Amino acid sequence: MNEDNNLELIERARKVFSGRVDFLLSAPALKFLPDPVVPEIALSGRSNVGKSSLLNAITGRKALARTSVTPGRTQELNFFDVGGVAGEIPDFRLVDMPGYGFAKAPPKVVEQWKKLVRDFLRGRVVLKRTLVLIDSRHGVKPPDLEMMEMLDGAAVGYRLVLTKADKVKASELDEVHAKVMAEARKHSAAYPEVMITSSETGMGIAEIRAAVLGDAEL
After folding, report:
1. What is the rounded CA–CA span in Å between residue 58 and residue 216?
2. Taking every annotated instance into account, which residue ranges of this chain make up the domain EngB-type G (predicted)?
3. In a 3-state reduction of DSSP, which class is residue 124?
């Protein structure tokens, strides 16, 4: 994509996300999913990676997604309508997936999470892309690799997105970025570009908005 087209997509994405963004529903099981009638972009990441904060930053809302200091609190698929007119079919949907990498969750809860996510990824024909969020302070961890392998197996394309970039020094961020890029090249469904974001400073937010819109329009 050339620079002019990229700037045009960034501006269109800004306008889309400044319009309608509404919470639709929470689905604790597949039978509660909304009808697959519009494109969907999912967000996934380890518990406490900053997923809710990034979702709020992308949509320009302060409390669209609830942030929590309790890792693993979200155990449902949360759907948000983006674009269009309220009460009608949206342009696309964002899906906030349950955080993974539970430190203290009972094995039964972990298995329920894996089944819900695996079944969703394998059977959701309108899922265009998944964003896998990686904490800039830690890089790719074993739970991230497990998620990436799950996406590879389901043949669902995904982007790796570094979060909390403001929390590390520039030299450390460059090192983590290079390592995550190298990891991305090992995975069949991973997008080769690794995006860098900070919900606190706004770094990379316009670009990831544009990426989400572009993926939804594929």
Report:
1. 14
2. 37-218
3. coil
Q: How many CB atoms lie within 10 A of CB 16?
A: 21
The two beta strands, 40-45 and 127-135, are parallel
Eight-class DSSP state of 99: P
Would you state the torsion angle of the CA atoms of residues 48, 49, 50, 55, taken in this order, to the nearest 10 degrees? -120
Give the chain's domains with CATH numbers: 3-216 (3.40.50.300)
Distance CA 177, CA 115 (A): 31
In tens, the pLDDT along 17-63 reads: 999 999 999 998 899 999 999 999 999 999 889 998 999 999 998 87
Q: What is the DSSP letter of 46?
A: B
pLDDT band with cut points at 50, 70 and 90 for residue 124 = very high
26, two tokens: 């929470």
Contact 198, 163 (CB under 8 A): yes
Query: What is the DSSP-derived secondary structure letter of residue 167?
Result: G
Q: What is the rounded distance in angstroms from the CA atom of residue 180 to the CA atom of residue 185?
A: 9
In what side-by-side order are the strands of the sheet with 158-163?
21-27, 77-82, 92-96, 40-45, 127-135, 158-163, 190-196
Distance CA 210, CA 30 (A): 29
How high is the pLDDT of residue 2?
61
Question: What is the C-alpha to C-alpha distance for residues 100 and 147, in angstroms, rounded to an integer?
Answer: 8
